[in-house]
Amino acid sequence: MNNTGVRAVEVVVVGAGQAGLAAAFHLRRIGYRPDRDFVVLDHSPRPGGAWQFRWPTLTYDKVHGMHALPGMELTGADPRRPSAEVIGGYFDSYERAFGLRVHRPVRVLSVREGGAGPSGAGSSWAGPSWTESAGAPGRGRLLVETSEGSYAARALINATGTWDRPFWPRFPGQEVFGGRQLHSAQYRGPEDFRAARVVVVGGGTSAVQQLLEIAPGAAATTWVTRRPPVFRAGPFGEEQGRAAVALVADRVRQGLPPRSVVSVTGLPMTEAIRRGRESGVLERLPLFERLTPTGAVWDDGRTVEADAILYATGFRPALDHLAPLRLREPGGGIRMDGTRTLRDARVHLVGYGPSASTIGANRAGRAAAVGIDRLLTEDPQPADEDAELAGILAS
Hints:
Order of helices and strands: EHEHEHEEEEHEEHHEHEEEEEEEEHH
EC number: 1.-.-.-
Radius of gyration: 23 Å
Structural class: alpha/beta
Region (Disordered): 113-137
GO molecular function, one term: monooxygenase activity
Shape: globular
Largest sheet: 8 strands, mixed
InterPro entries: Auxin_biosynth/cation_transpt, FAD/NAD-bd_sf
Pfam family, one: NAD_binding_8
Helix content: 25-40%
CATH topology of the largest domain: FAD/NAD(P)-binding domain
């Protein structure tokens, strides 16, 4: 920390999931020193990113497409162990192997221009006010306010994923339904639904996995989706992968909220899914019109009695802390060139949009590190860092 209570660093990485760790690895490989030139901040209680919150019955052999982090393979994993344990342990070993020194649990409250006054400055700010002497937006430092203090960073890699923003759809009658309503993020296993009548809402991988787990012990299950699900048979090669990513990337370029990569690739036709379709468990209905105290009603008069509604309806990017930077376009998304946001070259998003898959997150982490290094080395840091900070801090 300098005498203002703000710690100056080159780069702040927000999030220590797959994308954040990949970015930190490549920053270190380029020559940036962990906890000196860059810091990694993670709000989770332990290593593992969003994986640590997955339900216990999601064992490692059920995980689809987990890609190893750069520089260290995941080997010898017991396929019968919960994926949260396997991947959490792997991430922990990775952080220690490369000395990434992740700060946790640390909550990032906001990221703003160095020229803006910190929130709560009157009571909690440890030094002078932050003033417009920081220079034009996009050129000075970013003020990253966190639960452990504030950082003045020349660039930021945001890798916060989506787990903290589960999407809850709204239906008429939700407030009167007498059973349990929960999101897939709260799902802890099929035992909670034994002998229950369950409606699962959503057409993604989590919906299918959880439905197939619940069905054997439930009294009845009903699967509803907004659109008919697309099941993908046969190999999914590099060419198909590029085409799927391109569709997501196109939305991002237009400034629209990204769709998940899975939404354009379809559901892989695994043996478990094949059996689920043959048994009728994966027989899909369109969305119901409304909920009643005892179940759901469709517009054609169909009714289903239910004890629980499970919303496996996905997540949205967790980006509220970036709101002061005004990165969003009128369409609701953030336009990007690669991983760099077009509205602010200092800010890179990894694990967002087309890089939301595990292999995409690895590549995005490298691209962000290289792009930021190029930005910072083309605009060299003054020799006297404290003198520069003095220029953006007013007494």
